[in-house]
């Protein structure tokens, strides 16, 4: 069993950070700190002396981490882990999942790569979870908009529900837009009409 | 993401960091200057320069608003993975300010109160800072920058040198995101910082510190941000690059044409996808009147000679590692060849 590694995790998505921590724990590693909006990443790195730092690519703190090796006079001086020297696919997967890894001197690349891959997998599954959720929310919002647009059309065009829906669908087809988008436009126009603008 | 053609317009994505000198791509998109060149440009707001850099190198962005030294640092392989990168257009000049906490700046000669306005000798402030620093003793003051390969970093070093201060040993340098600088200053975690607008003026408005010098005093009209594209992208998409350049020069000409346009540009910058609340204190986009003397628009043509102050610092950093900056690398990176080709086509 190889020595467990100390990992500092910088991620303000609480659920995702918990997923990564759990997965790394199962691999026998120790997540020393799960940092959300760190007041001072410099101090945290100095205090915890991690072997590896895993950071959300979208974190504004990434520049702080990225420059420590250039500006710090004393250790630790974490450097970005370039999987491309070893495996270009890992680098691309990391970019697409939105995660990157920084390494403190002297770690065997294969061990870092294994850790990065665990993080990539968790970041990617969180991403697809969120995409599904956003889609579901969007569909719900679309349904509400379509109902509202139908109601307004029925009132203004003096038609029934079926005719109102067909009108929306035709508008959507003519413009090459989603029916939810067309509904939003119709609501906007008819509500302004009602307010006499 | 490589440029692809849909519905007659070529779709591409440019990365930017929310700063006032991201104005030209925003104006070019909102004002239809990209569309007039047949481009449908999405602007992707990025939170860190290193992430913007890595996305550009990996092809996830077609181009980006960049710190002027960054394309050269990428080409040299000293920031991120080595990636030949070009700076075919200057997006803005000046705009950096050096802010010191109230405690350090009290009684210092300040750029905006001096007569003639904007031009006190920056060395006076630096010598004053040096006196206080040596008198005070204790741990070295902590000064923040946004990225090591930035004009802010080099201008801070140069200002310190004017006071006879060794930037490597007498002060501690850290990197912080610009949006967190003012807060860190007020909480006493840093003693000062050098940053691009609007963050210097905003910090001064909040009252935690004062602008004691500007990049414009040290390096007047030095290119501060550039358009960055990888050399391989430029080679694969020469017509798209030319269209991008013309879209941006179109935006710059429009911005300079009337004060009404500057107010309209301010409204676009204050939209949520761009600078949002960081631009809400501005009445118009005429920043060259403030102590930062920022210039957006005007001459967008790059030139290796104009980069000499920046290049000297980069060369110094390389020499510390036993290397040196080859003039050919500088010339290749900031060559005006793409700019000239794009703008001559327009006239023809």
Automatic annotation (TrEMBL), chain A:
It comes from the Bacteria. SUPFAM superfamilies: CheY-like. Residues 6-120 form the Response regulatory domain. GO terms for biological process: phosphorelay signal transduction system. The modification 4-aspartylphosphate is found at residue 56. The keyword Metal-binding does not apply. Coiled coil: none annotated. Keywords: Phosphoprotein. GO terms for molecular function: RNA binding. InterPro entries: ANTAR (IPR005561), CheY-like_superfamily (IPR011006), Sig_transdc_resp-reg_antiterm (IPR008327), Sig_transdc_resp-reg_receiver (IPR001789), WH-like_DNA-bd_sf (IPR036388). This is Response regulator NasT. It comes from Halomonas stenophila. The lineage of its organism: Bacteria, Pseudomonadati, Pseudomonadota, Gammaproteobacteria, Oceanospirillales.
TrEMBL record, chain B:
InterPro entries: NrtA/CpmA_ABC-bd_dom (IPR044527). The lineage of its organism: Bacteria, Pseudomonadati, Pseudomonadota, Gammaproteobacteria, Oceanospirillales. This is ABC-type nitrate/sulfonate/bicarbonate transport system substrate-binding protein. Keywords: Cell inner membrane, Cell membrane, Membrane, Transport. It is found in: Endomembrane system. One of its GO terms (cellular component) is endomembrane system. Gene3D superfamilies: Periplasmic binding protein-like II. SUPFAM superfamilies: Periplasmic binding protein-like II.
